[in-house]
Amino acid sequence: MLPDSVDAVIERLAGQDYVCDRRLATALFLALKLRRPLLLEGEPGVGKTALAQALAGALGAELLRLQCYEGLEVAQTAYEWNVARQMIEIRLAEATHEVDHDRLARHLYSREMLIERPLLQALTRPQTPVLLIDELDRADEPFDAFLLEVLAENQITIPELGVIRAEAPPIVLITSNRTREVHDALKRRCLYHWVEFPDVARELDIVRRKAPGAPERLSRQVVEFVQRMRTLDLFKLPGVAETIDWVNALVALNAIRLDPEMVQDTLGVLLKHQDDIAKLQGGDTARLLDELRAKGLLEAAGPGTAAP
Question: Is the pLDDT of residue 304 over 60?
């Protein structure tokens, strides 16, 4: 059963350990209520893909994921003909000397000869699935046009077979990191939401759920540090996933608080580009830690790790 209010969306997602702000919950509620696809754009690591996973869990629905990449074609996204099986059927017909060409042609291009890929699978499931079209901006622009029929009509036209319509239309979430602009025609068929990085309170709540073994003070220090790091001019800002990874890494090292040495030793968990790491090693780490001390979140001095 679909949630009947925005508050219910927040509650159902929280049951899947997904902390959702009200604006995002409102966009998702309207997408469910109006039966419209939801296009989610935002920086990598803000939780766009995780939302689809949490939604599928909250609804008890199957999650079908289409991971986009450059050069993506219909055969990888919607369907392809089972050529090997078609050849076997032709050989069998020739071997038995029962070659009714019209009948054979109909059989070779029947539904049972189709290999279904995620888009077609989403239209043929007896129960409504969640369809995640992930990182659409990585696919070539013509793929946007191919999606229009699926998003607007919940159907796919197969030239050799005809139109296949969904009896239980899927719930569609599309994500984009905005490495290119998604076509306006596709945007018109969707509701839209820009997913922001979480604020301190929400990110701390996420860390508590995803890294429950971490000391509360360490979790707060990490979240505050990452929040300040996102104000820097970095090539790739750390996402929530990196925050969680960093907390878990510090716990694995028996850390009880942040200090310059601990931060420097573990920057590769948080940042994935050498230029960003060099920037932090060039003095920004000390400045960010000073800001935490000024806020009373970090002691003036002391060891960074507990004895194993």
Answer: no
Q: Helices 216-229 and 240-252: crossing angle, nearest 10°?
A: 140
The pLDDT assigned to 112 comes to 87
Token pair of 235, please?
A: 């090539």
CA proximity to 119, closest of 163, 150, 85, 152: 150
Count of H-run helices and E-run strands, the chain: 16, 9
User: Does 223 have pLDDT greater than 50?
Assistant: yes
Q: What is the pLDDT of residues 252-266, one digit of tens each?
A: 999 988 888 889 999
Chain-centroid distance of CA 127 in Å reads 22
Cα distance between residue 83 and residue 88, in whole Å:
9
Half-sphere exposure (Cβ direction) of 294: Cα atoms closer than 13 Å: 7
Which tokens hold the place of 267?
Answer: 């920057």
pLDDT exceeds 90 at position 94: no
The pTM (predicted TM-score) of the whole model is: 0.87
Among residues 31, 47, 198, which one has the least CA distance to residue 39?
31
For residue 105, CA distances in Å to 108, 111, 157, 197 come to: 5, 12, 19, 54
**pLDDT on residue 300:** 59
Q: What is d(CA 145, CA 25) in angstroms, rounded to the nearest whole number?
A: 28
Check residue 181 and report its DSSP letter. Answer: P
Exposure class string for 13-39: b at 16+ Cβ within 10 A, else e: beebebbbeeebbbbbbebbeeebbbb
Q: What pLDDT band is residue 190 in, cutting at 50, 70 and 90? A: very high
Quick check: helix, strand or coil at residue 192? strand
Whether 163 and 155 have beta carbons less than 8 Å apart is answered as: yes
Q: Vertex 47, ends 287 and 17: CA angle to 5°? A: 105
Tell me how many degrees the CA angle 210-224-270 measures, rounded to the nearest 5: 60
For residue 196, pLDDT over 80 is answered with yes
Mean pLDDT across 139-160? 93
